[in-house]
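[Automated response] Your request has been received and processed.

Submitted sequence:
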Amino acid sequence: KQWYQRRVAITAGGGKDSTYTIHQCVSAGHDVVALAHLKPPPNKEELDSYMYQSVGSNVVEFVSRALGVKLYEREISGTPVAQDLGYERTENDEVEDLYELLSEIKKETQITAVCSGAIFSTYQKNRVEEVCARLGLVSIAPLWEREQETLLQEMIDTQLQIRIIKVASIGLGKSHVGQQASDLLPHFSSINQKFGFNVCGEGGEYESLVTDCPLFGYTIQIDSSEKVCHSHDDMAPVWYEKFENVSLVEKPMLEKMNLRERLDLFVDGVRGNLPVLSH
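Generated structure:
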C-alpha cells in the first residue's frame, strides 16, 4: 500500500542516493512534488552533521531547477544531541529541523509520504521514520539494505553522472575529489576488500553530487571550484570541493517534459526504441 501513487517529498542533498531515490519513486508511480533540503549556516561548507550532507549545499538549487521540482530549504540550527540508535523528540537536536521543514512542506503541498535515500544507516532511517510518524506521513526508503556495489553499478548504468565531492576514508585523498564514481568503482571495490570500505559511502567515506541523469531537464555544469582540506589526518584526510560558479546547460526536448515523461523516454532508449537523451 505504501507504494501506491503518493504525493511525496524527497529528503535531498544533491547526491546519488537522493537522486536515485527520485528515480525509484517516479518509476513506482509517485508524484514527487517537493525537495526537502537542510542546509548549513552561511559561510560554512562543511558541517559535522550525523544526518545531512552539507558539502555542495549551494548546488542543490540547481538540482531543483534541473528536475523541475520545487525546493524547500531550512537552515540547520540544531546539533546531534540525541545520539542513541532510537530517537524521541529532543530539544535543539538537528532532527527537529527536519520536522519543521517537513511540517511546512506538508501544509503547502499535502504530501502523504517522505522518501529518503537511506541504504544501511539505521540511525538516519529511524529519525526520518520518527518525524514522519509525528506528522502522519509514510516513510519510504526504496534503497534500504540493497547490496552496495550492485546498487552503485545500477546507478551508473542508469546514467547518473556521480561526482565525488568529499572524501574521508583510508584509501581516498585529494586526487579523488572531482572524479566520477564510474571511474572509481574498481578502486572502491579494492579498498572495500582491504579495509571494509562502504562502496556507497554509507559510513561517511565520501559524498557525491549528481550533475546529470535521465530525470534532469538541464545538465549541471561546474564552471569553477576548489579543493579544500578540512582535516589533515595522516590515515584518512578529509578533502571536499567548494563550488564557486555553477550553471545549467539546456538539454533539448527534455527541459519541457515532466519527470514521468523523461523517465519514459529514457526507458524507451534503453529498450532500443529511441536514442537515450540523458545528457
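Summary generated for your ticket: Residues 70 and 201 are 27 Å apart (CA to CA). The mean pLDDT is 94.
If you did not submit this request, please reply to this message.
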